[in-house]
Design goal:
This protein has 408 residues and is α/β, with parallel strands linked by helices. It is 35% helix and 18% strand. It contains twelve helices and 16 strands. The chain has helices at 8-16, 83-99, 116-128, 140-150, 178-191, 205-220, 239-248, 261-273, 292-295, 311-324, 332-348, 356-359, and strands spanning 63-64, 69-75, 105-111, 133-135, 157-159, 171-173, 196-202, 224-231, 254-256, 282-284, 304-307, 365-367, 370-374, 380-382, 385-390, 393-398. The protein has a six-stranded mixed beta sheet with strand order 1-3-2-4-5-6, sandwiched between helices.
Length: 408
Amino acid sequence: MSGTFEPKPLLTRRQSLRAGLRASAALLVSACTGNKFDFGDITKLGGTTTPVEAGPPPGPGSAIGAGQVHVGMILPLSGQGGAGVGSSLKNAAELALTDFKNPDIQLLVKDDGGTPQGAQAAAQAALNEGAEIILGPLFAQSVRAVAEITRPRNIPVIAFSTDASVASRSVYLLSFLPETDVRRIVDYAASRGRRSFAALIPDNAYGAVVEAAFQQDVPQRGGRVVVLQKYPLDPGKIAEPVHAVAQAAAQVDSVFIPDNADSVVQLVQALAADHVNLKRLQLLGTGVWDDPHIFSTPALHGGLYPGPDPTAFRNFSARYRTRFGQDPVRAATLAYDAVALVAALVKTQGPQRFSEPVLTNSSGFAGIDGVFRFRSDGTNERGLAVLRVTPTGGQIVAPAPRSFGPQT
């Protein structure tokens, strides 16, 4: 993969992950007290709502809801590469409005066709119709294009890209960022006494981001990276980097392999063939490990990876199936949580609802995808669980935090 590392990492993770988060799905509240924001008693949405019969879905360029506060939503509803996921995100947004009992917002849904030019035109159209905030788009280049339109007008954006380089002041990313995965799994491994790390990292844009985070986080937690090897996308050319790790295996207690299931399975098999005793080592991965192929591979059993708690996503999926007659893509929770957050802010925060102090509230928010908060630079922090690979799926060994400490 070259260029930006999406949509594949986003779609792979969000579609294949059978993980979602807290049982109180999309209870978008602040834990703040005193002079900070208190969202009060907002209705919990963890599967307690009454199912609503499905109606005809709104088409591209449609409006959903009849509230006074206009909210732009930019999604790839046509074109190649994202139309299916865009439709599912739109459905999830509609479900959030229903679950919040039709709040005082109107979603101005715009199709960007999966291109930066389309996204920029969509943003302009939404702003012309009075949008106070933009939700989406999905792709990094489209987020950049939208920011060129929104930033001069001081309109905030909550986007779904996984590329932290497009985050900035007033452009906030709601997605799961690779850096968060790395920080969580390294922190947990270190807390369990792991100090010497090897890594096999894909030689692509996603791998570059993960490598930078890994090289930073391991020393910060008192560990050392003994050996780090990048491997090419060509499966026939992994022998050399695998052998380099195998030669250093006696000096490490953990091996980090942040890649999708097919690659990870091939790599651990190659390590075993190179006489590495995998049972002695702790295998570590990222959220893309939440995959049936990982669970069905005995060599990976006992491996650890970060991810959200699955309970709330199961509730969300059941409600989505009832309304739309199909399963949501895993990324759909991003749209749901974005709309639910906006609905909560409109209900509780008055004219300052989308201001920077409100959106970057240090206590954060909680949704289907767990606790999260936006940093002032537009990136986010998320509370993630740590899960162990078992034959039946991911088993939580460390729960996701329910609140945040001070920002670092």
